[in-house]
Amino acid sequence: MKYYSLNHNAPNVSFQEAVIQGLATDKGLYFPETLTPLAPSFFENIENLSHEEIAFEAIKQFVGDEIPADTLKQIIAETLCFDFPLVEVENGIYSLELFHGPTMAFKDVGARFMSRCLGYFNKDDKDAKNTVLVATSGDTGGAVASGFLGVTGVDVVILYPSGKVSDIQERQLTTLGQNIRALEVDGVFDDCQDMVKKAFLDESLNHMRLTSANSINIARWLPQMFYFFFAYKALKSQNKPLVFSCPSGNFGNICAGIIAKKLGLPIEHFVASTNVNDTVPRFLEKGIYDPKPSIATISNAMDVGNPSNFVRIQEMYQNDLEQFKKDFTSYTFNDAETLVALKAIHNERGYIAEPHGAVGYLGLKKELQNIPNAIGVFLETAHPIKFLDVVEPALGVTLPLPEQIESVMNKEKVSVKISTYEELKAFLG
């Protein structure tokens, strides 16, 4: 498998090169040259396959022969070491819980998969040293810190916006030490992401072998399609159209879901549910892509003004807006609406969601009015404990601390404050 830049002005590269580089030399995101649908027999038999078997069949064409099959299966086994339960919140509406991993966020899957791929590529070169540079609006930092902790030949530098991630999220990315370092940026997530992209293109940093563990990196992004296969496996017997609503910030999850659909997974429709950072809903309404600076909300992991992965989605539909709209809808909701949904889900259904999942729920409910016979799935991307400052007062509950969270709460925060790209560059050396 070869990967090309979506800016179409850089050489095509292998899976290994795309993982190590992260971003193409022309600033473009990498995208696979081909998407080969899986055999119909795979979907006919999917309920008899394990999660690991499903994931291997889904991902193997993207890796090719660059990682031996047995090694790839081992990487998948280590990646999928936790559950992905579907919880029926109300009749025909399910929460797909993606927060049962080590940092209690969906990004554990991509971070674990990528770290193990990078470790494999470095195994024969004792002098190899990669620096993983990552921007986070919330959960990416913790997942990457956990996934790469102690990985030989890899240093991790995480940029996060000061005061704009939850206390638990901050602790998960600032307390681990070892090969993990955190930079607290005076700005918003988009500022962090812009610094990361600028560093990739800075030739004076070439000696550092920089790569990204944001969803711009194919090894972080592609495994996110696994969730959709797992949900289909669980719901297939109901034999109804399937609608997925993804709380969307950088649009990695929903982009991976569309990849799954292109591979043949029977998904009727996608909903990108956003907070007031509404670049994509405005694009669908007006046909003009007009990113704006991000706005802080209670669903902070979605506070993205210029979602990186949307260009990949446009590529899969050849920039044909009308074809795109047949498969894809996007709705925007403000904090007040999100809080109302949180309370309703808890008071009427007995289910504790968190702000991102509540936004996903709202978008799903709205879209199901157009497809009344469908089953709806909204993605719960993080455990409610990670947003206890919002969830506990809103619902009048006290959330018990899960073991994964308790382990970081008493550790000392260590971060370096920066404001400019020059300060980042000086830190990297």
TrEMBL record:
Keywords: Amino-acid biosynthesis, Lyase, Pyridoxal phosphate, Threonine biosynthesis. It is an enzyme of class 4 (lyase). GO terms for molecular function: pyridoxal phosphate binding; threonine synthase activity. GO terms for biological process: threonine biosynthetic process. Residues 2-79 form the Threonine synthase N-terminal domain. The modification N6-(pyridoxal phosphate)lysine is found at residue 107. Its EC number is 4.2.3.1. Pathway: Amino-acid biosynthesis; L-threonine biosynthesis; L-threonine from L-aspartate: step 5/5. Pfam families: PALP, Thr_synth_N. It catalyses: O-phospho-L-homoserine + H2O = L-threonine + phosphate. Its cofactor is pyridoxal 5'-phosphate. Residues 93-373 form the Tryptophan synthase beta chain-like PALP domain. Belongs to the threonine synthase family. This is Threonine synthase. It comes from Flavobacterium aquicola.
